[in-house]
Design goal:
By secondary structure, the protein is mainly beta. The protein is built from one helix and 13 strands. It has one domain. An eight-stranded antiparallel β-barrel has the order 1-2-3-6-7-8-9-13. The protein starts with a helix and ends with a strand.
């Protein structure tokens, strides 16, 4: 069995244990504090809708690789951390008398904006911010091929802004410092998409000296993009504490932790092909200038292959403000 399989089994056992704690802990807390709502409370039979604003941080590990005949094989790994901001709608049922401690069942729908940076997961031979496009011109740096600025490859994934999610669970209620505390174990779902950008450029000398880009130079520039969607499921635990009331509205602050496992494919492959073009280079006023760009007869195209893979588990921490419609 592979190391990856062992890791997935281990994380699955941890998840099952975590779910068990989430289910037992609310009962233990409520057993100590009693049932604060009281039997026969009219609010027990009420459906309670709510809306919330929330912000959070998501963490996931990812890896990638880029390969080509010209520039060889390169790989990279990084931990992705990005912020989110969004809102949710939630509906709680009347309290369920057939379950110990009479929790409410709830369903929640989330919409988030993800603020992720398009940083380089794989970056070889180039500045980390961008590739100088060789189709329009490049820094010859004295005309020496090995010193041309912009030669290299990069793989840059980025989470698309729109992130959807939701949760189903039970809301156990206790009283702490005279206010209601809700302990809410849940099953969480998130769907997000990653935009994956592949960039590649290279130069070959073609004059009397193959190591120099004068009077001619061959260059190729490739830019390709793709998207990959991910469905994730896992346990969640939320603590929701009342902060006050205004008329028929009740306000609370909450925090939630989610451990999410990707249940769709984690791998994404992106291949792209580019044609070499001949740049005629002349020295004008002391600078090397490209004076013409033409097809290269007899020179085959270049193919660049890439792979992008997310870690099976990601972790999300959310804090927010919730407003309940809860008439007295």
């Amino acid at each position: 069995m592979s190391a990856t399989s062992h890791r997935i089994i281990f994380m699955s056992l941890i998840t099952l244990a975590t779910i068990g704690v989430f289910l037992v802990a609310p009962a233990a807390v409520i057993a100590q504090s009693g049932d604060p709502a009281g039997e026969g409370d009219p609010a027990d039979s009420r459906w309670i809708p709510s809306v919330s604003l929330q912000t959070g941080i998501a963490v996931n590990k990812r890896e990638g690789e880029v390969s080509s005949i010209e520039r060889g094989y390169n790989e990279g790994r990084t931990t992705q951390i990005f912020g989110t901001f969004g809102s949710s709608l939630q509906l709680e049922t009347p309290r369920l008398s057939f379950i110990p401690y009479h929790p409410r069942f709830f369903a929640r729908a989330d919409i988030h904006y993800g603020a992720d940076n398009k940083e380089s997961l794989v970056s070889e031979g180039i500045a980390d911010d961008s590739i100088r496009r060789l189709g329009d011109g490049f820094n010859l740096n004295g005309g020496v091929v090995e010193q041309v600025v912009g030669r290299g490859s990069a793989l840059r994934p980025q989470v698309e802004p729109l992130i959807l999610g939701g949760g189903l669970g039970l809301s156990f209620q206790a009283e702490v410092l005279g206010r209601k505390l809700r302990i809410k174990p849940s099953v969480e779902w998130i769907f997000q998409r990653d935009e994956i950008a592949l960039e590649f450029s290279d130069v070959e000398g073609n004059g009397t000296d193959p190591g120099r880009c004068q009077p001619e130079c061959r260059a190729v520039s490739i830019n390709a993009q793709d998207t990959k969607g991910y469905h994730s499921l896992g346990p969640g635990l939320e603590l929701d504490y009342d902060t006050g009331r205004a008329g028929n509205f009740r306000a609370s602050l909450f925090s939630r932790f989610q451990a999410l496992a990707i249940v769709s494919g984690r791998d994404s492959r992106l291949d792209a092909t580019g044609s070499w073009l001949m740049r005629t280079v002349e020295r004008i006023n002391g600078e090397h200038v490209i004076t013409s760009i033409d097809p290269v007869p007899g020179r085959g195209d270049t193919t660049v292959s890439s792979r992008y893979k997310r870690d099976p588990w990601s972790y999300v921490v959310v804090v927010g403000f919730r407003l309940y419609w809860d008439p007295r």
